[in-house]
Amino acid sequence: MQRYFVTPDNLLEDKAIVRGDDAHHLMRVMRAQPGDKVVVSDGVRRECLAEVVELYKENVLLKLLEERPMSGEPSVDVWIAQSLPKGDKLETVIQKGTEIGATAFLPFASARTVVQYDAKKEAKRVERWRKIAKEAAEQAHRSKVPDVRDAMRWSEMLRVAETARLALFCYEKEDGKRLRDALREAGPLAGGGPILVIVGPEGGFTEEEAAEAERRGCVPVGLGRRILRTETAGLVAAACILYEAGEMGG
Amino acid sequence: MQRYFVTPDNLLEDKAIVRGDDAHHLMRVMRAQPGDKVVVSDGVRRECLAEVVELYKENVLLKLLEERPMSGEPSVDVWIAQSLPKGDKLETVIQKGTEIGATAFLPFASARTVVQYDAKKEAKRVERWRKIAKEAAEQAHRSKVPDVRDAMRWSEMLRVAETARLALFCYEKEDGKRLRDALREAGPLAGGGPILVIVGPEGGFTEEEAAEAERRGCVPVGLGRRILRTETAGLVAAACILYEAGEMGG
Fold first, then answer.
1. CATH architecture under which domain A78-244 falls
2. CATH number of the structural domain B3-68
3. Which of A219, A249, B162, B214 is the most buried (most CB within 10 A)?
4. Using the beta-carbon criterion (under 8 Å), do B243 and A100 form an inter-chain contact?
5. pLDDT digits (tens, 9 = 90+) for B93-143
6. What is this structure's pTM?
């Protein structure tokens, strides 16, 4: 069933209002008629089965039929910290990472990040990333929209890593841990704090960054003998962590 | 270290010749000079450390320094059978699936496949897919190039499925197995026959297809509660199977 996220102030006691692009999608793409059923969620606390009541020019009025459990969220929070990749690769990471079940994305800049910053463009880019997360969450039947943070500096990312329950640093080193060992040493995965997966840019992390991350408590892990592209590594790690946690059919 | 696949007749006893796009890449992109080291493989039996000896206009002569074990291949063969998706999504599946470690891709048509066939375009498309697999294998440090089959019919795909050791049919059904249970019931993963992951098109499989697949021995499996796009499902399944088999850091 089609699902839409609305802001909490558009999800009232017994009705909801779908606006903007979602209203366009519901009316023009899905060709909704009064009586059609959809799922509506505020992405925070409530998810409801609802029925289309009235189609207006730019929004759609829904009647709430019943509250439903927010069942689309995984039992473990996986956050993907991704050093800004070239082109539209971060869009791939956010779209597919949302399908897989990541709950937050933290873009950051590191020594070998080649993407140029532009404060004006920055706000637009983050807005676009958040839209991609929302649309992917709707399509994947998530109950919440993953959080897309503003791009941050390496030092800020490390501060976030220190607050995570487990910060996994994707880095090929001789004595790096296997992902599974790092996860099992962390104890039961479900219900704890977030597990942060930290992925470098196309050129990888510098040795200095790897050493600093390890000093700050990050655990270097390997994802096997094949070399994954920057936009693939976080997705694979997230899928394997969720599989290990009993999600993804695991 | 940069790696190139050459056909077996270009990998001789003590030298190798890199031709075509790879020669262009080595000379123009990597700006190779005599003495530079690369890895060269025939993708079948041999992998060697080699040194650039001479740069010609359209090919590069290498001297073989030592034979190396073909270490980039996973211990279990994962094949991805993908109902032809729209646009360039199959390219994503082949590129990322190669990085993850799939050893074959089997594009097929099923009832809800919307891609139109065109015999003339078909050969070009398959050629392009094979080029993507080769380049991804080089970048990911694979020892072999995954096999990309010609697009096949549903009935042909089912015949391949019957020869697989385990054919997993990605389909959401009430009494479907969890991926992990299906894998563990199949016994030790390493070294056996191929594990085939069968993924439907954007609109999914029909009930008739699901019933037929099950009659022919395919095992319906679920990948969790979130809905994965067609181009994401096979990649996630491959990553989880390889993780379960002790690859991908598992």
1. 3-Layer(aba) Sandwich (3.40)
2. 2.40.240.20
3. A249
4. no
5. 999 999 999 999 999 999 999 887 677 788 899 999 999 999 999 999 999
6. 0.90
